[in-house]
Amino acid sequence: MNLEDYRTLFMVVTLGLALIAASPAIALVVSFGGGSEQFSEFWLLDSNHAAEDYPFNVSAGEMYSVFVGVGNHMSSPEYYKVYVKFGNSTQLDFNSSKASSLSPLYEFQGFVGDGDFWESPVTFGVQNVSLVDKVLSVDNVTTDALIEDAVLSVDEVIINGMIFPVDAHTNWDAEKGGFYFRLSFELWRYDTVLKSFMFHNRIVGLRLNMTDS
Amino acid sequence: MGSWLKFLVVSVFLFLLVPFAVPWVSATNGDAVPLEVAEAEEALVSAYDVVLEAEESGANVSGLLDKLTVGGEYLAEAYVWVRLGNSENTNRLAGLCHDVAEDVQSDAVELRDETKGSWMSETVVVMLGSVVGVILVVGLCFVGWRVFRRHYRKTVLGLRPEVV
């Protein structure tokens, strides 16, 4: 190595040490963070805080419990709303990427810090359930229709002790053999840019068999 | 060219309409919101905005978020009573939410200003420290280089046989 080579080496070492010395100030200006995916978790658990024993066979007058929760991984505190809706399978589609047009019965609101979560118990039940037989009239002789032709209607849903009048009805599901309703939970998030709540593309829910109601 | 210009003007016009159109599109739930509830929600959102500013300036806002959640619970219940047509409970809960939101907002403003003040002084210290550090490093390296060069010339070049 000649003197020129040593000079180059000294300059490189000086530059490296200067960068190390300046790194606290550089860190204030340049952000090295980010890159991680931003998302929200949304869950529904049974009354034992597990995903095993969800209410399925539902009877009128009985109360059932679940937990609904939201986990925030959006890199900043978030303002969430959870809408609770009740309807039949055509009104509430759990796989949809759009929010249902049904009006919510109940709602929750929570402010969740980044990396934190919010959870709330939900008790629900139905009452004033009635089976409406379609009466067939053939040659002036009326006969009761089969159950497959009947309609089950629910007039009231109870959520966390509050009674909501509803007008929900469903036909007999021949494929699954029962009358099925759905209790849906939609996650909405406050968008600070649009200054409005936007559907956050997350729906969880329960399929409820009310054949025994 | 003319049709392109028209297309551009219409596109820009539609783009400008988006911010006005989105709130209508997103208002899927169609509830007629009483003034008290709307004001409570506005106060809560306003408090949330200040909490976000405090968080961005480095403050620990977990306590404020817990308080905001209490306000959110009042507001959610107010909305439920709106749907059930009970104006007395609606107004009571909207009022409670409004009170919580105002408390949080004043706390958040205080916290944000405190944190911004300390952040500024910390920033000045860090900047000055970095500048002094860089000057020291460059100065020491320069001195080191001079010493090394003198040593190199004396020892290495001094050993060279002289050419006559």
Chart the SSEs and their pairings.
The complex is a heterodimer of chains A (213) and B (164).
Chain A: H1 3-29, E1 39-46, E2 64-73, E3 78-87, E4 106-112, E5 117-132, E6 135-138, E7 141-144, E8 151-159, E9 162-173, E10 178-191, E11 196-209
Antiparallel strand pairs in A: 1-2, 2-5, 3-4, 3-10, 5-8, 6-7, 8-9, 9-10, 10-11
Chain B: H1 2-26, H2 35-56, H3 62-84, H4 87-155
Helix pairs in contact in B: 2-3, 2-4, 3-4
| Shape field of chain A | elongated
Number of domains as seen in the coordinates of chain A: 1
Element order, helices and strands of chain A?
Answer: HEEEEEEEEEEE
The CATH topology annotation of chain A reads as Immunoglobulin-like
Number of helices of chain B: 4
Give the C-alpha Rg of chain A: 28 Å
Low-confidence stretches of chain A: none
End-to-end Cα distance of chain A, whole Å, is 93 Å
- Main pleated-sheet profile of chain B: none
How far apart are the first and last residues' alpha carbons of chain B, in Å?
83 Å
Measured as a percent range, the helix fraction of chain B is over 70%
Task: Tell me the series of helices and strands of chain B, N- to C-terminal.
Answer: HHHH
Give the strand content of chain B: under 5%
Q: Can you name the CATH architecture of chain A? A: Sandwich
For the largest beta-sheet of chain A, the strand count, sense and barrel status come to:
9 strands, antiparallel
- CATH C-level of chain A: Mainly Beta
| Content-based structural category of chain B | mainly alpha
How would you characterize this protein structure?
The complex is a heterodimer of chains A (213) and B (164). Chain A is mainly beta and 213 residues long. Chain A has 1 helix and 11 strands, in the order αβββββββββββ. Helix content of chain A is 13%, strand content 51%. In chain A, strands 1, 2, 3, 4, 5, 8, 9, 10 and 11 form a 9-stranded antiparallel sheet that branches. Chain A has a two-stranded antiparallel sheet with strand order 6-7. Chain A starts with a helix and ends with a strand. The model of chain A has no long low-confidence stretch (mean pLDDT 89). Chain B has one domain. In chain B, 85% of the residues lie in helices and 0% in strands. In chain B, helix 2 runs antiparallel to helix 3, helix 2 packs parallel to helix 4 and helix 3 runs antiparallel to helix 4. About 7% of the residues of chain B have low confidence. The chains are: A mainly beta (213), B mainly alpha (164). Chains A and B meet through helix 1, strand 3, strand 4 and strand 11 of A and helix 1, helix 2, helix 3 and helix 4 of B.
